[in-house]
Amino acid sequence: MNLLLKSILLLLCFPAFPAFASEGSSPHNLTASFAGITALLLFVAAYSLVIMEEKIHLRKSKPVLVAAGLIWILVGVTLKGMGEPDAAHYAIRSNLQEYAELFLFLLVAMTYINTMEERNVFQALRSWLVSRGFSLRKVFWLTGLLAFFISPLADNLTTALLMGAVVMAVGGSNQRFVVMACINVVVAANAGGAFSPFGDITTLMVWQKGLVAFQEFFALFIPSLVNWVIPAFIMNFMISKEQPAALEEKARMKFGARRIIVLFLLTIITAVSFHNFLNLPPAAGMMLGLGYLGIFSYYIKLREHTALMSDPAMHVDAITEFENDTDQGFNLFRKISRAEWDTLLFFYGVIMCVGGLGQFGYLAMASQFMYQDLGAFNANVLVGVLSAIVDNIPVMFAVLSMEPDMSHGHWLLVTLTAGVGGSMLSIGSAAGVALMGTARGVYTFGRHLVFTPIIALGYAASIAVHMVLNAKYFH
To answer: What is the pTM (predicted TM-score) of this model?
Structure first.
């Protein structure tokens, strides 16, 4: 197979390799078989629908769930026909275990974010920013700086939506400012998430896999900062110093908001401790943290119910309605139900799809091309470029599945590139896609593309800084 054909096939298959596809059974070289080709076509068709989600309004989880089931039917039938009736069983159980850990971890994190949102934590921050009367240039830097430091604990999507709301509230009809500030928020949110295990799904996967220790992620802080600061510095000169009038917006945090923030930090500490000191899955520590929130939520509910009962202006019928209506007052399970279920099910579909494809041998072929023919450095830089075109989650699944023999420095490099590479295109990250939706018609793919060379300069500079500052990890 010539190099061009390998490249085309790699681009089609790359999003389809799971993090742990080959565990449980050894993959076979069945890439040219009817079942293998059919499985690949099923995934390509499903992922094409995912890419077109914004146009056809079909939730991204639905096509990959269907494709996952069909692909594993093909795997089961094929392996049974080869005299290995139990191979598919063990392979899919391995994938399910890894997905379960990721699912539980994300479910707790999403629940905390939803809870803080309900307690007006993010609204209070937004209110403070828009009421200060900062100049446009100050708002540009403040929203970028906050995005960079909030995303390591929250996530790039939540952070982008929060800072994007500030940008649009302050910028108003100044479309040039809104576009550049939105780009700045996307780059900062993605860069901030790259140096923390909690900042992005890809860094979380690398940490849970045990390839990079928790404290080692902070070696990427300076490269990540460079990735954001360089394009921000260049765009800074294109933004006026105009000072729009302060907006009258007031939002106060509800009872218990600050203590929930503390509990979230304590939950993160618990998850890290489970992983570092007890050699237990971080997801188990996160579930203990959900218990913290559950106990405190009971206290909040009692406190709010007592306040309601003591209010003489509150009619008896309203009190009865409060007691019977689960949508009134603080309800932890309502926060859990509002998790991003489409995203969580999408992860399941992708992992299962690519787990099946891994059994047909596509992973071994891609590994040979990426890390043997191209070399580790070129392959890891390419990962960031592919992350902007496809999505960094399946791309990182692929790399983790390959388990290439490379230095610790290269594992940090691929963590960096997968995290920040998506900033080069507006569709390359959840942050960019989210802001295209909220700033519809203003922040667009085409307007982001104009600044891609500047963002790419930051991408290249972050790689160079990593290679110099973290040279000790490449031995």
So the answer is: 0.78
